[in-house]
Amino acid sequence: MPVWLREYSWRQSPSAVYLSLPVRGLRVTPNSIFCTEQYLKVSIPPFLFEAILYAPIDDTNSTAKIGNGIIFFTLYKKEAAMWDSLTLENATKEKLQCLRENAVLKAHERAKEETEAKKVTKQEHKKYALEATMKLEEAERKRIEDLKEKERLKVTKELELWKKQQQDAEKQRRAQKEVELHQQVEQLKEKKKEKIDKTRIPSEVTSKTRLKTTRGCHGFHSIFSENLKEEQLPAPRSAATIKVNFTSRVFPTALRESRVAEEEEWLHKQAEARRTISADLSELEDLKEEEKNPDWLKDKGNKMFATGDYLGAVNAYNLAVQLNNKLPLLYLNRAACHLKLRNLHKAIEDSSKALELLRSPVPDNENARVKAYVRRGTAFCQLELYVEGLQDYEAALKIDPKNKIIEEDAEKIRHLIQGTTQDS
User: Fold this and answer.
1) Does residue 205 sit within a domain?
2) Where are the TPR repeats (predicted)?
3) Is 106 in the same domain as 178?
């Protein structure tokens, strides 16, 4: 059985009603208050306050303030008039039940409309984020293509200049070879002339000797011709191109130094993993190669977060998680985006997943674990779960005890918990 709260005070003006409901010692949250045009309810189990108002009010603009053990309602009338009483008197039980049911139905319809409106707004935000992402990608793609084109033109010019230099050098080499060949021919002619001068017979030689020489003249010319042939330089060798083919290798080591069986097993496992990822991510077939890289998506999400595009950053991290769900930084960064977007339960879930992946406490992941505890603790505190939030802040302090900011935030949470305990 509920305990009815019957102590209240109210006053009015032609346009508004001011109602004060004492709730000292009770913990009141916005979810404890339910208000429609002609029905007001405050539920703090086991305590209950219910009122069928005298006339309809503007429940959209009406307000409720909670503080100092009092709920102060400001109810704006739909029609300016003075009420005879706060509640509708002399109403039958059936009429009260009908008014109560109509109020609940209207509240459900309004909640449904708000949900649909939020859904439409979320879709519009998602569409806008996708369009913005596509524009950024198009601009980045155009910039890269321009850089490639500039680099291609630069390399083409350098190649043409190098070819021209090679042609000029080849012409110089040919001219030098011709000069050297001409010099060698001149040297041969001079040597030949010297030999001829040495073989001339002196004038004192007798006629008999001359005769012998004359008879052996044919042999002399024959021997000279053979010597001349031997001293002639051989023709230059013809140019040719030697092609060298190398065995294609996946690994950087040479084939003679590799373990072929182990490498083939590794390549087989990698192929199986790629086929599994391709089968699981068939919806990502239209993405480019760089867009299928989780590290590239993480960097892109970081840039969007820095510019304040939190929805775009969440989309980038979502794709990265689909590609590789074992990177704790993806969940950690997405938790930061959810905190900015007030998606507190999702922030808690992502922070917990990051802590699960960072389970091995090593010095290299201390900073990441501190961020995960702080972000989850912040989400708990914003949900008014101060005890759980304090536990996460204390866990972060154990890892980084010299962090003054975390210590100050933990002290604030302790004061909040003490104040809540005293009020209750």
Assistant:
1) no
2) 370-403
3) yes
Containing structural domain, residue 75: 3-89
Rounded CA gap, 337 and 310, in Å?
6
Q: How many C-beta atoms surround the C-beta of residue 302 within 10 A?
A: 15
Domain-located, residue 283: no
Query: Do residues 409 and 334 both lie within one domain?
Result: yes
Q: Is the pTM of this model over 0.70?
A: no
Predicted confidence (pLDDT) per residue in 95-115, tens digit: 777 877 888 888 888 888 888
Element (H, E) at 69: none
Cβ(329)–Cβ(298) under 8 Å? yes
Q: Does residue 326 belong to any structural domain of this protein? A: yes
CATH value at residue 32: 2.60.40.790
Q: Is 75 left (phi over 0), alpha (psi -120 to 50) or beta?
A: beta
Domain membership flag for residue 232 = no
Structural domain ending residue among the three candidates 172, 191, 210? 191
Cα(350)–Cα(329) distance, rounded to whole angstroms? 10
| Cβ(422)–Cβ(27) below 8 Å | no
Structure tokens at 172: 């110089």
Among residues 304, 323, 325, the alpha carbon closest in space to that of 314 is found at 304
User: In angstroms, how far is the first alpha carbon of the chain from the final one?
Assistant: 22
Cis status of the peptide bond prior to 46, with omega within 30 of 0: yes
- Cα 20 from Cα 42, distance rounded (Å): 12
